[in-house]
Amino acid sequence: MQLKTSDYLKKYGITLKKSLGQNFLSNEVFAKKIVELSEVNKNDTVLEIGAGAGTLTVALAETGATVYAIEIDERLKPILEERLLTFPNVHLIFSDFLALDLSFLPSGYKCVSNIPYYITAPILKRLIFTPFSALFIMMQKEVGERLLEKPGSSNRGFLTVVLQTVANVEKILTIPKSAFVPNPEVDSVVLKITRKEPFPFADGSQLESFWRFVSNSFSQKRKTIYNNLKTITKDTNVLELIIQEANIPSSARPEQLSEEQFLMLWKTWLKFTNEN
Ligand SMILES: C[S@@+](CC[C@H](N)C(=O)[O-])C[C@H]1O[C@@H](n2cnc3c(N)ncnc32)[C@H](O)[C@@H]1O
Questions:
Q1: I need a labelling partner for 93 at 20 to 30 A (CA). Which of 30, 151, 154, 248 fits?
Q2: Do 181 and 50 belong together in one domain?
Q3: What range(s) does the Ribosomal RNA adenine methylase transferase N-terminal domain occupy (predicted)?
């Protein structure tokens, strides 16, 4: 009989750590569904962040794709090695994803992961700067819904804007708390994040500059964009000109602007301030 996630944990005497976001998929049904929806095939290279006890890793491995499974917690090594023994297409890397050199990822790779929720934003930030074709990321429902918000919603944050500028974002699955061991306090969703082509930035430093600009524009959400940008623009007369030239209402708040308006505002700001 095939062992379940909880059987493997029991077999190796592992107690899960909340501090590492260890809520594992309790069976393979949702893992298989996620892999099916991400259309992974044997020609793909797939990154998995947080392999855990390997439930999703096994489903990915079965497609024949080249899989790089990253896991910070070395206590899980014996479980992962046992479950993935017969899959030479899987490379296990025991490391902190946030500190890992990602230059091994080929252009067009996919990321399919049930990530540790406590570092969702830093993980997305790293992924945005890599040459992905699509990211299938499971995250806390409220966080996922925020990333889907359209202009005008007060729930829109700066990460929503940056993400929707570089990618098309959609929700493809909702997963109930009951599908995990131990049960978390919240439901989860899987977002499909596909790279926009043509990509709006020529290189990583442009994207970095846009990231900083949007982050500054949102520094105090209840303030207008004009007031937020005053902190990074020395001359307020120039700032007024920038806002006018970019065709943005002077009373606009950051959550009201679309990605296109943000791109226009950033480009105009660069032109007038010679910043980068
Ligand atoms: C939500 S669990 C998902 C486990 C497994 N993929 C599953 O679906 O059952 C997140 C996993 O990420 C690991 N993790 C936490 N912080 C990490 C980090 N900085 N780098 C890599 N893995 C990390 C945890 O140890 C945990 O195994």
A1: 30
A2: yes
A3: 30-197
